[in-house]
Amino acid sequence: MRLQKLQVRSVMAETPDTVFIELGGPQPSGRVDYQPGQYLTVKIPHASGTIFRCYSVSTSPYEGLPPAILVRRVEDGLGSNWIADNLKAGATIEVLPAAGAFVPADLNRDFLLYAGGSGITPVLSILKSALIRGSGKVRLVYANRAAEYVARGQEIDAWVKRYPERLSVVHWLDAERGFPSVSDLADMGSGFAGADCFICGPEPYMRAAETAAKDIGVAEDRCHLELFELGAGETESVAPSGEMVSMTVDIGGSLIDVECGRDEHLLDCMLREGLNAPNSCRAGNCAACMCELVEGNVNLGENSVLDEDDIADGWVLACRSKPESEKLTVKFP
Ligand code: FES
User: How much is the pTM?
Assistant: First the structure.
């Protein structure tokens, strides 16, 4: 696995449920390569076993600053709570190379950016990159539950002061006005029909903002949702139609028996069966769904995280693996 060591420079409480973490350069030397809007997968030495979780980078690669991530505590989330409770300045963490396709193709365009809650993280990276490297106008629509949950508010104000002609920001607080409707979101994005649109936040917010962007006139192929956010917990899979095999899933201290289609990815089967299997990218890029193949064989498709040693040690990615035997057992850390 191509893990890179990074030093934790600082850990600061950002909002009641979010910590802001600045990461130093890799040890002993070098730097982190990433594009605006990408995420880092962090290796977390949790007491229940090593797990991997993805966190978007909030800095711009063009700022000349070390990368930083925002981590929001997820209720019962093993990774986010471990980080918020245990990670301290001076510690060393390991990360996989930056990944993700929530990246602008051309920074020299106008940008309409919709962020909800901690969805500000990759959006802020895109916003700053567009201002530093591009020449177009940028509108940020930023929705939060209440004022105390607005992450990076002072930083955003500073960017407005620095680029008053190009950057406009509209805040929305649910506590004052309720959840924004599609027409509210469209009103806040008006004038940006020709822009590239990037959306990140809770799923209902993303879907509403996507509809709003289309209503404004943003072209469908210019509208980008952070699917890494959508992937977590979303179940889109349909029941397989072909031959089935038996699979035992060892997860959270329980053994659960399910039937998995031969043409079905293991993760799709688990989610279809209602198992709370960890996942993020669903594309073999983040290692969040890494599990041990205890019994049977799988066909591990393309991925960018496991190397030959990992595979020899029995690790597979549930999102990329399909059954190749009648019986399988997989175990999550
Ligand atoms: S969910 Fe990211 S590698 Fe499987």
Answer: 0.85
User: What was the pLDDT predicted at 233?
Assistant: 38
Which of 2, 51, 55, 317 maximizes ligand 1 atoms within 8 Å of its Cβ, making it the mutation to test the pocket?
317
Domain boundaries, the chain: 4-95, 111-225, 244-331
**Neighbour tally for 324: CB within 10 Å:** 13
The pLDDT tens digits of the residues spanning 95-130 come to 988 988 899 999 999 999 999 999 999 999 999 999
How does pLDDT run across 184-235, given as a tens digit for each residue?
999 999 999 999 999 999 989 999 999 999 999 999 999 999 866 544 433 4
Q: Which two tokens stand for residue 328?
A: 């399988």
Number of H helices, E strands in the chain: 9, 18
| DSSP class of 37 | T
Pick the CATH number of 111-225 from 3.40.50.80, 2.60.40.10, 3.30.365.10, 3.60.10.10: 3.40.50.80
- At the topology level, CATH places domain 4-95 in Elongation Factor Tu (Ef-tu); domain 3 (2.40.30)
- Which among 229, 235, 280 is the best mutation to test ligand 1's pocket, defined by most ligand atoms within 8 Å of the CB? 280
CA distance 127 to 155: 12
